[in-house]
């Protein structure tokens, strides 16, 4: 449920409308392609995580398989993504709550949400998991209900509204804007899928990490693909792709679909689900960012104070506080009407998902050969190794090249690459200066699980 919660956010309920308007009904192919890539990447990550469970997940594996600079770079880049995303989620939550109850400014609600979820992450991971379970359950329940109602409408069994059947799927052509638009939509879709890998971070704190990783990866992947691909299929069957309100951030795909289905108060319903979603994503983001800081600290790639955990809870509360810095910065920008500056920072997160997936694939390739050479028997394996791994690497590199050449996401690739380059330089300098060398040598040889995390309490 935590992994589902991290992936399903406003990008599905609102942001997907932009991709539908761009590619038309053929956007289904973009979501299916993105889902297939996630399945393959999660399988590779699962292979490494079962063999060596660790709270640092792919950052630790990159460190061991590629080199310290790789683990340092992808760890900090991933931390930056989730830390920055929290500020945006707080902003959206503040806007929704202010629309409902305008007697408090939007930044006041954003601050309240931020403080509340920081407090949740100070708790024991079991309590955090309970909060996240209920957040995720609301989102999953809303999507399942939408799938049921939409399916009834497609089969002409829904008595209200004006949408029926699958006529809109081909009414103006399945691919009205050409194949190029589908490729561009696929690149935009990848941003929505990032978060599935949280499962390997969370499972490392469970009683039986290897068993939990296998079970959750097998189930979570197909559920995510069903929720995304299934939802988008229903929308493009019932709603014209050139409906003007689809691409508007104040409406989105779910809102438009509920309106044509004759559901009263569609905007209020969607806003409630989106509010739950952004709070859930904030919660998952803070959990993931704080654990990544903890792992980086253990390897000597962050200050050792990030390893400090609560005596009773075992939660890395220093990492929680540091990871929430961008959320508090967003609150301040909202209060001073300078939130547009935050958009510039968000540009540097546009292709982090592809960078993360590329590192996972390269790490799995090298680690698999190394484990085989050592005679280690793997209980959970990547399919058709190494050919599918090579195929994923080639596809990701091709996607990044396409983004640069095509131009729609050129800024995102440029900003993210510049940020990654700066972090690589920092990692190489730290390695040359021997910063954290002892901690790195001591903590990259053995997996770090939840039990070990509890033993490092302050």
TrEMBL record:
<keyword id="KW-0812">Transmembrane</keyword>
<dbReference type="Pfam" id="PF00324">
    <property type="entry name" value="AA_permease"/>
</dbReference>
<feature type="transmembrane region" description="Helical">
    <location>
        <begin position="220"/>
        <end position="241"/>
    </location>
</feature>
<feature type="transmembrane region" description="Helical">
    <location>
        <begin position="315"/>
        <end position="335"/>
    </location>
</feature>
<feature type="transmembrane region" description="Helical">
    <location>
        <begin position="383"/>
        <end position="405"/>
    </location>
</feature>
<dbReference type="InterPro" id="IPR004841">
    <property type="entry name" value="AA-permease/SLC12A_dom"/>
</dbReference>
<feature type="transmembrane region" description="Helical">
    <location>
        <begin position="341"/>
        <end position="362"/>
    </location>
</feature>
<feature type="transmembrane region" description="Helical">
    <location>
        <begin position="27"/>
        <end position="45"/>
    </location>
</feature>
<feature type="transmembrane region" description="Helical">
    <location>
        <begin position="66"/>
        <end position="87"/>
    </location>
</feature>
<feature type="transmembrane region" description="Helical">
    <location>
        <begin position="268"/>
        <end position="294"/>
    </location>
</feature>
<dbReference type="GO" id="GO:0016020">
    <property type="term" value="C:membrane"/>
</dbReference>
<feature type="transmembrane region" description="Helical">
    <location>
        <begin position="417"/>
        <end position="435"/>
    </location>
</feature>
<feature type="transmembrane region" description="Helical">
    <location>
        <begin position="137"/>
        <end position="158"/>
    </location>
</feature>
<feature type="domain" description="Amino acid permease/ SLC12A">
    <location>
        <begin position="1"/>
        <end position="409"/>
    </location>
</feature>
<dbReference type="GO" id="GO:0055085">
    <property type="term" value="P:transmembrane transport"/>
</dbReference>
<keyword id="KW-0813">Transport</keyword>
<feature type="transmembrane region" description="Helical">
    <location>
        <begin position="107"/>
        <end position="125"/>
    </location>
</feature>
<protein>
    <submittedName>
        <fullName>GABA permease</fullName>
    </submittedName>
</protein>
<keyword id="KW-1133">Transmembrane helix</keyword>
<dbReference type="InterPro" id="IPR004840">
    <property type="entry name" value="Amino_acid_permease_CS"/>
</dbReference>
<dbReference type="GO" id="GO:0006865">
    <property type="term" value="P:amino acid transport"/>
</dbReference>
<feature type="transmembrane region" description="Helical">
    <location>
        <begin position="178"/>
        <end position="199"/>
    </location>
</feature>
<keyword id="KW-0472">Membrane</keyword>
